[in-house]
Amino acid sequence: MAKKNTNLTVKQDPAGINIQLKPVAKSTYKKELSTFLSAVQSANNLDTPNRKRLYEHYVDMQRDPVFYGHIQNRIMRIANKKFRIFDVNTGKTDEDKSKLLEKNWFNVFLKLAMESRFFGHSLIYFSEFKENLISQVECVIREHVVPEKGFIVVNPGDTKGISYLDGDIANYCISVGNKKDLGLNEKLIIPFILKKHSWAAIDQYEELYGIPIRTATTTSPDTTVHNEIFDNLDKMGSAAYGLFPEGTTLEIVAASGAEGSRLFLNKIAACNQECAMLVNGQIETSTQTGSRAKSENVVESTQDEITLDDLMFCENLINDELLSKLAFFNYPFGEKDRFEFDSTKEPTIDEQLNIYKGVSDIAANMGYELDPVQIQETFGVTLVKKLAVEPLEPAEPEPPASSKQQSKKPAPGK
User: Fold this and answer.
1) Runs of H (alpha helix) within 80-175
2) Is the pLDDT reported for residue 251 higher than 90?
3) The whole model's pTM is what?
4) How many Å apart are CA 47 and CA 43, to the nearest integer?
5) What is the mean pLDDT of residues 328-356?
6) For residues 17 and 139, is the Cβ–Cβ distance under 8 A?
7) Residue 120 CB: number of other CB atoms within 10 A?
8) 56-68 confidence digits (pLDDT tens)
């Protein structure tokens, strides 16, 4: 464990990192496969690695709703997970120490740590303190971090910088990820660029086949008349009428071959599936094909394994790095404290009902019954005791019809 800092000052940007950096505007140049491959080569340069252009591709990709959704889904499965701090000797949960991490800054920390899976690296900075406690963390601007060299540069592309691995800055930073890893985004860029091409092709296809073609013929050789016709045809783009000179013939030709757009849509769907396969390990939940049982089975066998790997990644990071950093900032964490996520899976309502039915049958055979209070709390229902209904007294049977007729006969002698 690191030695505690007894002279902790409360302020923003405590290590002065943000003051020294000079952010640059993001480039909006057209990003194609050629520029991407060039950016990868620049990032892998052994002498002067520079990830600036590569990160521009990554940011551009996250504007795609489907790709962004898959990435965020994987991150949220970790950031929204319950957790606890426990004593490694007794296994008991320490509620007070667990509450110290039930803060917004820690949720942001988990998200930034998970982003390193996609960007390859995140340098997390404890950037603000309030009342001697961490109140805000942020990711040092990625373009200014050179993971391969372990330093921060004032301007992207600089060959010299400030080390974040030692000195006072090291106390306020946690380096997350492999220093040579370019992240999962590197593998997502190619299907993303191909998907962009298909959307552009669909736009062109709509112009050719989606809008009916308007043609006009005239016998007039006058250029003034021709210009008037052109002007009216142009105005018909937003109106269903036009005023044409006498002798003009107007024809609207309906578009044909619109079904060809399916070719581009199928390509877009294939790119989305490749993204789902890379990020979540399966495509069943991202498509409407296959049965529900098949999809659930795939999710159980693949997506859960990826989530488990992410959980172990974050647990190791917190136990190996974060807790010792927090001890330096006078948090009450010691050698016996460990962090872990709650990996227990909550049973569904149907599963709980089946459990209660089985237990109820066993209890009945043993002469017991289930506690109604527990049933109400589990299922969120109100049980009302069934009222006993007294049976009605049986009515006297009516005499047979023959006896009724005999009773109506007059007595003899009358």
Assistant:
1) 95-99, 104-119, 168-172
2) no
3) 0.73
4) 10
5) 84
6) no
7) 25
8) 999 999 999 999 9
